[in-house]
Amino acid sequence: MISTNQKISHYLDAFQKVENSLLGNEIPWLKQFRAKAIAEFENLGFPSTQDEDWRFTEIETITNKKFDLPAKEETDYQKNEIHGSLLGHCSPDKIQLTFINGIFKEDFSKNIKNLPSGLKIKNFKSMIKDEPKTLEKYFNSFERLDSDGFSLLNDAFFNDGLFISLSKGAVLKDEIYLNFITHSSHKDPVVYPRLLCFADRDSELNLVELNLGEVPLNYLALSASELICAENSKINYCKVQKESSSGFHLAKIRAQVQRNSRFYSHSIALGGSMVRNNLNVALAEEGAECVLNGLYLASGQELIDNHTQIEHLKPHTTSRELYKGILNGKSKAVFNGSILVHANAQKTDALQTNKNLLLSQDCHIHTKPGLKIFANDVKCKHGATVGQMDQDVLFYLRSRGIPKEEAQKLLIVAFASEIIDQIQLETFQNQLTPILFTTLMGKN
């Protein structure tokens, strides 16, 4: 067993070794950003089950290991391997940005020349070279008061990232695919993917983020995604997480939603030894809206943990949240949703729902939807359900000649389809449906 001090010291020592070689080390603001992050990490350390927000997340499975950055050569990967990994996930005619172990790989990306008018896509390395002030501006748009030990490690160690911006009035109907792949033969590698996205006034942007694991041994992906919706803009952000059975994935996702803008989030968690998604949305100005949809599938001894927080900071803001889970085997899931309505956020309209389908007597769900309301003229509602397969409906299907196993599959897919149907990206929906079906059948 590694002591608490040893757990923290491992990453402090690692930072000291690589600090001077990290991206942007010569830029004062970025160097200061990293130094502040590692100092806060040293002070905070890792969360534990003694912390309310981590009560059901047994992170000792992660912190008892010493994860290290993969060797530089581990970013090498064959194109046919990449295309095989992404087969069925991406449309070949869409823009694809591929990162391996958190590092951008232009050769493995597609359709990135002659981008649509108003769309800018650059990795952090190029931004630091060509537009460091722009990167600094959007980096500093977030206070990051919700940081924890894991997200602080990303702040300290990230060595590349993706910057996407869409200019005023630009509408991009086609989705952009962001492929974050972990690949290493190195023992216990840790990677730090990062995304920074800005949709300017009156623009519309569709993003599909794919997180895939190609490592047979334990690995740790600590990702960070930050998105800004300017006035009257729309971001449709789909995150699909499909780590290997030995993978740990912990993500911090932050979204700022400004006046009359809309943020749609679709979180699809299809596997991993342990998955934790922290999604924090700030409805920062009047008329801001967000829709958060989530689907998580767990089997074996997997743990999938979704923590969401929606802050209604101003009047006339709206949020809708629906997360659904399907559990089998001895798996465990956590849903902890918080809606915070500030004192001056009158006329808030918020609805939060969590539904869970348990396919085994040995699986567990910890669900905790919550409201914190400091305004008196609001419309807020939340609820949660946990249940097993409807035996009456199952009996009806069987009475129509459908075999029991096939009838069960139909009910499971119907339960999950409510989330998939809301994604509003037809091409991606068509790709995701068979993947979802295959995953469901493999977990059933």
Structure write-up:
The longest helix is centred in the last third of the chain and has 18 residues, at 426-443. The strands form two sheets. A ten-stranded mixed sheet has the order 2-1-5-8-10-12-14-16-18-20, with helices on one face. Strands 3, 4, 6, 7, 9, 11, 13, 15, 17 and 19 form a ten-stranded mixed sheet that branches. The model has no long low-confidence stretch (mean pLDDT 91). Helix 2 packs antiparallel against helix 7 and helix 5 crosses helix 6 (132-139). By secondary structure, it is an alpha/beta fold. Helices cover 25% and strands 36% of the residues. It is globular. The chain folds into two domains: 4-285, no CATH class; 392-444, no CATH class.
